[in-house]
Fold this sequence. Notes:
This protein has about 160 residues and is an all-alpha fold. The protein is about 75% helix and about 0% strand.
Amino acid sequence: MNKPNLPGELDLLGGKKDYSLRTDWKINGWLYAAVIISSASDVFFHQQTREWPLALRTMVALAPFLALLLWMRSFARWIRGMDELHRRITLAACFFATAATLFVVAAWHRLYQEGVFQALFQTELKPGAGWDIGGVWLILGLMTSFYILGSKIFNRGYQ
C-alpha cells in the first residue's frame, strides 16, 4: 500500500519538514513550464513572435494553456492520492483561493472603471488583471496567497 500524499509536500513556505522538492517538481513542473513559455513569449521574444506566421503565433499563444491543462491533471492526481481529511482541506483551500481571487480581481476592475483609484491616488493605477504577463503574475500571486491563507484557516479546525 502506498503512503498517502500530504499537503506539506508542496508547502515550501510553511517550513514543514514534509516538503519535497522532487514532489514539487513532479506536481508543478507543467505549471513552471507554462510560466516560462508565457514569460518568454510575452517579455523576451515579443517582437520576434509578431513577425511569425499566424499558425505559429497561435501555437505559441496556446502552448501555456496546454501546459496548464497538464498541470491541472497532475495536481488532481496528487489530490486524489491524499487521505480523505487532507483531500477535503486541500479542496476547500483551492475553492477559497479561486473564489477570493475572482472577488478581488472583479472588485479591483470595478473600482478602476469607476475612477476610484484616480481620485484617491491622483494617478493612473491599472488593475493589472489583464492578460499580459504582469496581470498573470498578479493573479497567480493572489491565488497562491489565498491558498496559503485558506490552508491555514481550514487546518486550524483539525489541530
